[in-house]
Design brief:
By secondary structure, the chain is an alpha+beta fold. It is built from four helices and five strands. A hairpin with a 3-residue loop joins strand 1 and strand 2. The longest helix is centred in the first third of the chain and has 21 residues.
Amino acid sequence: MPMAAEFLITETEEWLVSHRMDSALPGYLIVASRTSASDLSDLSDKALREIGPLLALVQTVLRWELRAGRVYIGRYGHQAGHSFHFHVIPIYGWVEELFWQDERYRTLRQFTDDVSPETTDGAELTLFVWREFCERLQPPPIEGPTVPEVILLFRNIMHARSLPIDT
């Protein structure tokens, strides 16, 4: 799937870092392999050496520069035509507040035996982000920097850090 240039943040020899094109959540990043692969085990040693420091850097920027309370990193999906990639999902305090304010997501409690009323997990918050910020035609209002501002911030930081990462 082609990526629009305005969403590209940086590239290394093995990876592309971009903002997720269909996400209204600032800082929702995709870190995609430049080579065709189905699994981590299909990637070159060089790609495997680059990915850890690269994911750590984007997580650090989200936590310290953008004040994300949590950062989820995961691999989802298996559609043909997509390169092997990671989703990097920031969970800001205001995102979690929106989650708790939306009663529709309380129905998720029926799937657990956990009775504490104020707990949630990464699966529930990831679902919330996907449904509300990626799939809704009218996503919730955001707080803080916009998607273009976050892309610019990441570009500046990545450039200052002299990516590509030495391996």
